[in-house]
Amino acid sequence: MSHDPQILVLGGTGKTGRRVTDRLRAQGLGVRAASRHGAVRFDWADESTWAPAVDGAVAAYVVQDDARPDLVRPFAELAVARGVERFVLLSARAWADLGDSLEAEEAVRASGAAWTVLRPAWFAQNFAEAPFISDDVATGALPLPTGDGLEPFVDLDDVAEIAAAALTSDRHDGAVYDLSGPRALSWAEALAEIGRASGRDLRHVDVTADEYVAHLVGRGFPAEVATEIGRYLGHIRAGLSAHLSDGVQRALGREPRDFTVYVRDAAAAGAWRV
Ligand SMILES: NC(=O)c1ccc[n+]([C@@H]2O[C@H](COP(=O)([O-])OP(=O)(O)OC[C@H]3O[C@@H](n4cnc5c(N)ncnc54)[C@H](OP(=O)(O)O)[C@@H]3O)[C@@H](O)[C@H]2O)c1
């Protein structure tokens, strides 16, 4: 094990963790990208994996298990006892908007370490990266119970840039950043943009929440996870997620990346090539 100070990145193989890891490594920093199948083993369901992953780390990016937010408190206690001085927690704007319990946020606030909370809107990258909708997008017809509801998709390059900055300086200590893109789009509008950029015929198929939950269960999602996703999408359908947030501007002093920029770059990289 390296004796240089390390930064632990949970969910290190996932959509956000991978980008956070890449940014930190590009700065020459020591990173431990951890997950069940990653280079460093970390499993929320197996507490014996926590201490070996944490040892040597001075800061941690935390992607929680959405079904077990209660585990963040014992994890944070263990991490602080073993030398972690700073947490950057990935939360979600929808949870705060829906009035859900924010147990993981409360746990890092109470940890005694410095903390920053990131609350993103829906990720633009969901259109091309698993697990939620990318498989359906690939078929050309995306069933979603969102109607004409609008969402200000946030670009994960913005989220990762903020996470990396907050993990490596004290400028973001105590900040809660609600993160969105610069404009809200419907799913039909988003798919039309992707279709134009990728030369594909893509369309949104409006379905009921129950139909969508059944669709996700058919794709192998556990029923409780599918029901939760259906609940968030109902919030969008009701028009309650269309508002813009200013977290990117507050954290980075610039405008968020536009959805069109994401689509252009992802299409150029072959994201929707058949
Ligand atoms: N998708 C959205 O639009 C959106 C919006 C706002 C907030 N969020 C939040 O973002 C989080 C997901 O982050 P993400 O998109 O970066 O991740 P992701 O792409 O869904 O990947 C999940 C990561 O967590 C790891 N993981 C899964 N189960 C684990 C377990 N039991 N123990 C340890 N690691 C585990 C996975 O790797 P292994 O398989 O190797 O373990 C992987 O690295 C969720 O909390 C979600 O609520 C998502």
Automatic annotation (TrEMBL):
Pfam families found in the cross-reference section: NAD_binding_10
Give residue ranges for domain NAD(P)-binding. Answer: 11-169
SUPFAM superfamilies xref list:
NAD(P)-binding Rossmann-fold domains
Taxonomic superkingdom: Bacteria
Under the heading PANTHER family, the entry gives:
PRESTALK A DIFFERENTIATION PROTEIN A, PTHR43162
Q: What is this protein called?
A: Uncharacterized conserved protein YbjT, contains NAD(P)-binding and DUF2867 domains
Identify the species of origin.
Jiangella alba
